[in-house]
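User: Sequence for Alpha-L-glutamate ligase-like protein below. Tokens please.
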Amino acid sequence: MFGLWKTWKALEARGIMGINRRNADYVLKYNKRSLYPVVDDKILTKERAIAAGIHVPEMYGIISTEKEIDKLDEILDGRSDFVIKPAQGAGGDGILVVADRFEGRYRTVSGKLLSHEEIEHQISSILTGLYSLGGHRDRALIEYRVVPDQIFKSISYEGVPDIRIIVLMGYPVMAMLRLPTRQSGGKANLHQGAIGVGVDLATGVTLRGTWLNNIITKHPDTTNAVDGVQLPYWDGFMSLAASCYELCGLGYIGVDMVLDQEKGPLILELNARPGLNIQIANDCGLTLRTHAVEARLEALKSAGVVETPQERVQFVQEMFGHIPPVEG
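Assistant: Structure tokens for Alpha-L-glutamate ligase-like protein:
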């Protein structure tokens, strides 16, 4: 028992944030419950982002009731690829990604062929709340299918890689690239076997990776190095993440973004309870950085100053960026 306590004290000294501290000191402190629907419902998030002029995957249609499933043909008319997802889903469950059509059927990104009836059944399951937070009735969102930028071709397996940035009161404090694997079924979900790769906040260069709680430098499927990759449009990603504070009003969030080969950076969704594995990928504790931001906020408050998203990005890049490359 003493050994466990000693280990935890060592982790605390490195600024490693545990789930209890995250919940008590950040989620509960900075996130008003009344604002949760803005991030828990992907449709509301998308509508807010569009109104604010923030780029998101185009929304093709919404199905809210069983009767509205009849609108599916109209929504999909002329479209060979699309994504169907639950508005209040979590962990990537219930998402269906269609890449093209073949002989009257729909081909998923994994190559599986589905009938129109199977697509309708999936939507019906979404509406019943099978994949939603708390099991409540849900809505099905049909949207543009993101095509990943070519830079990810050598370090990702199927699916769409995404970038998660943790943001405290508008200040990006830590970033991670999530790469799908065969193990994760092409999903960028760490709990299902995706890779988390740390990213230097100042440069957008990838650091080492974590996979199934192990430290790695190569993708298990492509065998290519995941560290030392320069992510394009990095300052754009940082600005997008910082501006999401004004978008949703929540003070502690995870901003998930993608890089489309034609449309560039897009916001995918926001998370009011972002996970903590990002610390392993960055070999750094979140608490050290969140305390520095809180000290900054206190100093600015005393001076009567409020920083713009661009000023917030500049501060964190100077404070937390320029991490030396991983050796070996």
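Residues 23 and 273 are 8 Å apart (CA to CA).
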